[in-house]
Amino acid sequence: MDMYLTTEDFREMMRVMYTDQQPYTLGEYEGIPLASEVCEIMDELRSFEVRADDCWIVTYPKAGTTWVQEIMSAVMHDGNLEEVNKSHSMLRVPYFEQTFPEEVRRLKNLPTTHRIADEMPSPRVIKSHLPGQLLPPQIWTKKAKIVYVIRNPKDLMVSFFHFEQMLNLKGAGLSFEEYLGYRNSKKASYGSWWDHYLYFWKRRHQPNVLVLRFEDLKRDLRGNVEIISQFLGKALSAKTLDDITEHCSFINMKNNPMTNPDSLLAADEIPGRSFMRKGKSGNWKTHFTVAQNESMDALIKEKLHGTGLTFDH
């Protein structure tokens, strides 16, 4: 997207979107709740021209997308961090189904994000939160590389709750108890987290799919940077892998205006608000009551029974 926008351009557009408190509505496409604006272009997204050397970062929102997209971008730049830091991660890695209201796009004569991705040089790193069945079918026929990240759904709930409050999205204004009911239903944006997870979990042995766990990234970032590098076909030196690991540590990404979305979302202008909040595993323990935890455990057991997918308690 940096062929169309500067960091300041993007920031201005996001400020217009979120400070004007424009209403956020959900529609539905093939049974999946999505932002109404996304539903309107889904037929176009499904026919998107995928390239065999594309690298996609796909997640259910708040599972570690920003973190892993930066790792992938740095790897695909062969560890040239000086070049990486010339533009913001959200401009280097287009958010495939992201839509700006027409009045906002008109500010910079901006096409839709997937049309911008059409013009990007190869190899592209593209981000999406779409469920696997709604991604462009060419991803599967051309076997583009997909990195998929799974996060403990309890931490996912906490992160998503704070995110929607921050940006006044669909779940804003709900208590945490109410939010759990909303997000643990099939009525929430992007559908249920378990269906989203299991689509890719079942395909984890396909050669063009790499499934990672957020918790493993926290435990061994350097090892997972190397795994991602090898999966993307890059044979990087130990020094380069070390440098990417340092660049992509939580504290360094939080302090780097070219990796922290706060610098584009204007969240840093409001005390107490931040896109990159804690980046921890197990933070759910400070939010869930005993009853909420027991209910969530029961749901996880029900939805994932027999799949082999489990989470640390």
UniProtKB/TrEMBL annotation:
GO molecular function per UniProt: sulfotransferase activity
Protein name: Sulfotransferase domain-containing protein
Similarity comment text for this entry: Belongs to the sulfotransferase 1 family.
Span of domain Sulfotransferase: 53-308
Keyword set, alphabetical order: Transferase
Coiled-coil ranges (or none): none
Domain of life: Eukaryota
Alphabetical list of InterPro entries matching this protein: P-loop_NTPase, Sulfotransferase_dom
Classification of source organism: Eukaryota, Metazoa, Echinodermata, Eleutherozoa, Asterozoa
